[in-house]
Amino acid sequence: MKASLKEKASKNTSQALFSRYRVENFFDEMVCEEGDIRQWYQFFTESLTTLGFNEVLQRQRAAEKAFMSMGITFNVYRDGAGVERIFPFDIIPRIIDTQEWDKIEQGLQQRIKALNFFLHDIYGPKTILKDGVIPKEVVYSSAGYLKQCEGLKPSRGIWAHVSGIDIIKHNDGINYVLEDNLRVPSGVSYVLGNRDIMKRTFPEVFERMEVRPVNDYPLRLEDILEYLSPRDKPTVVVLTPGIYNSAYFEHSFLAQQMGVELVEGRDLVVQDGFVHMRTTRGFKRVDVIYRRIDDTSLDPLIFNPDSVLGVPGLFEAYAKGNVALANAPGTGVADDKVIYAYVPKMIKYYLEEDPILPNVPTYMCWNEKEREHVMANIGKMVVKAAHQSGGYGMLVGPHSTKKEQTAFKEKIKKYPREYIAQPTMALSRIPTIVEDQVKGRHVDLRPYILCGKDVYVMPGGLTRVALREGSLVVNSSQGGGSKDTWVLR
Fold first, then answer.
1. Sequence-ordered list of residues with C-beta below 8 angstroms from that of 52, at least 6 positions apart, any chain
2. 3-state DSSP: the chain helix, strand, coil percent, rounded to 5?
3. With a threshold of 0.85, does the pTM exceed it?
4. How far apart are CA 186 and CA 192, in angstroms?
């Protein structure tokens, strides 16, 4: 028998946690339209009711203090200056039942297989272009397409070893893929930090609910990185841009968890076609580099000559097979939001399957007919720059001014290839503690996928939450926070 919010509230002798919560006209992950708690949330909400509202608030504050003490931060860059912030966190988790997760997992495995086939193809035989499935000018005009990667053969034939694919749930209850992140996806350290905090915050709940673990991710990542080298005991390093990078905490955290060295470009040198790391005992050969810097910063001799983040000669050593890079250079083309629109066709072309997870309907502004539709309906749509991320370079039509819409129309007219548009999707919501009240806030989900001997999808991922009322932008750089994601066995 389902328990309603009103029944939950009446059982609580202190201020009721959900007494004023309203579902409104959005899909709610925890509460049905009728006001009933979804089955997979019932034990958790009963536990909160038993604790009482004041105790829940105390645990929320304790969780925030724990994040501060753990140093889980990110950097926001504004006006040329970096500001280090604690990543906002909410203790009401996103819970996903087994049946829903199985479909998400299968859809992500299918998608990353097709994307790896695509990367292998466009830098090799180019059959998908020759067959006209994707216009070649769309691929060749992408800022992420690197002609220098033509003919490359990555170790084990894998291009994207670590991926983060963003998913949203619409009012229809269907999960849609919003974005692909194959170049240098970030955020997994927050998943691991969130889980650690939640185990401390609700130890009694974890004893009862069968939540699938995520803490083995660093070991799985290390296994995949080692798999890329033919040597028995390969030396693996994490290559970071340095302490001023927004995701530096994650770089250092993953290196520490895997027990490998965290290095910057200046710590590496190429000698006789091999990459070596400077140590107090001299040079040591490096076999695998988990790189957390952009493609064009990897080697100033091949890409950006002004880059001080990379290693001169690294690309040549990689092309010879003397060092493995994860992810492979050139994967950035798959992050292009115009290329994203063609992924369903890739799945059909390479796998001869229908997509398990659909894309959000997408209008490509390089197409005259679709561009006209975008121009006429820009106030209802979300317009995105093809190569921007983090919530930048985006217009959310319903929340924009006429002046902003006019400015974006001019950008689209001038650079049609650089913009796509999508209908404004009604992202699902989850109860979230905001200013000592529980309010509905929009969320998305970024699961992480590791591709090695097989394709592993972390059970859960990073649930990002838009903390500002009515906002659909969940990115941390735009004021968003996160929740722990529980996938039940």
1. 12, 13, 14, 15
2. 40, 25, 40
3. yes
4. 12
